[in-house]
UniProtKB/TrEMBL annotation:
Major subcellular site: other
Similarity comment: Belongs to the bacterial solute-binding protein 1 family.
Subcellular location: Cell envelope
Keyword Transport: yes
Record GO cellular component, one term: cell envelope
Keyword Signal: yes
PROSITE patterns, sorted: PROKAR_LIPOPROTEIN, TAT
Swiss-Prot/TrEMBL keywords: Signal, Transport
Protein name: ABC-type glycerol-3-phosphate transport system substrate-binding protein
Residues annotated as signal peptide: 1-24
Amino acid sequence: MSGSSRRAFLLRSLALGVSAPTVASVLAGCTGDDGRPFGNPATRQRADDAARYRGQITVASLENPPKAAQEALTRAYREHQPDVRISWQTKDYADSGAYERWLGTQLSANRVGPDIVTSGYAPDFRGFVDFNEYRAQVNPYTGDAWEKDYAFEKYRELTAEGTRPQLGTDQLHLLWYYNKEIFAAANVSPPRNWREVVEVSAKLKRAGHIPLSTNFDYILPGWICSVYFDQYHPSWSTAARSQPGDWNWNPELDGDFDYDANDPALHAKYTYSAQRFYQALKAKTLRYDTPAMVELVTNLIRVFPQYSNGDFFAYTDQYLPFVQGKAAMLVDGSWSLTLLHKDLQSLTETRAKKLGIKAGKLEPFDWDVFEFPPMEGPLVESRPRPPEGTTGYHLGVVEKEPEHTEMVMDFLMFWLSKPGYTAFLQGTSDAHELAPAGPPMVNGIEYPREIADLLGKVQQKGIAGPAYGSFWVNGPGGGRTTQLLQALFTNVLQRRTPPQEYATQVQKTIETHFADILANTGLTEDDVANPARRPRSV
């Protein structure tokens, strides 16, 4: 998705895909058994009893693969299915909003054209294939169940209905990056807790550096606020989860739920019920005017915005000040592991133009990463749980006639398993655009050593963030209440409102504007009162 808006993409929880610049130079000397980086073509086997298909499959995802990757995957698939034509209708959109509008138009047509799309941009469309129904199906190109080829079990990325309409190619992890040279010069070490974040930031600022590159657009309200809210409120999961008799109760999952505040996978072990959550807000059994909220906000304003970017409240790309050596720390996703390596090694003119700087203007420096430093205190209930998920290429399939859908799924199973993904990666490498956004979701993939070492900095734990984590800042995601909550948060960060008064205002705003909240979530008062009834909006 070259040239697309990083801001809009991340706001929708779809992380930056392969629009990354090249890291081709790391491939030198890193080869597989046949002299190619991604393994032996002899592994590309197809079961003898696999069906033969004839027709056309149209790929129109938001992320635009390099032409060499498209051609390599197409060529590899046609070795097995010579009568299937793969039509790539991907392109570089100006931003994700343009893709969202285009996709909405396509899906509203009497006869939908594209077959494979980025389905997360059409959450209300009910015509996507549920990949859960194909997990146990034998992949004819490996002879194994597809769930052995693709790591479905790593992340429970389901809709409210319990379906899985989208798959991502890479694993996402949020990290803190730091400039080792700046840290050494300032005589500081990576902070081990929030108190040390404050202390280290103060020393870095005195030394003339931007301590922490973030922004008010999505990193603080979307990521940081959610992670640290969860440290103080993991027990909210017991009120917001589905209960026996609810329409979305899953006995296999929810029947075995055992609350453990420090379980890294806590929020992946129950079915979230929006009805239960809003029911508890209305009943005031879940509240924001508490000592825990006051302490949480007090901790946040000790860092933000004074130790972040000078233009913190305007949208900024947090990556640029860090890669330029101006900021000492950066909160970002695992995609920057490979981005940083390449940009600091050899910044191309194309990449420099995307960053808005001149080629050759970056000075290399040593860097590393650390996990979210915990807040500490008597009101803290758990360790930080930075949410994980999928990133890279996001793919969904439009349900059409059964035979056509079977053909499309045959291709997708080939693509998202070692035979197809190996060819796809090799084409990406040949185009000098190999920059995985995290460890692969496809099993059996081995990256060249230098890339593998970079991705090895990520230790996945199967963490899912709470669905309600940033509600206190972002509200229902639209409407008057969201605007009010964001304004309140701005005021407390700017020290116009004391934390105690802020917590009281948040609670009062939710109580006063509860009807607006429900309207923006598509729920009714009856839906909230009756979690056993499936809402029309779902």
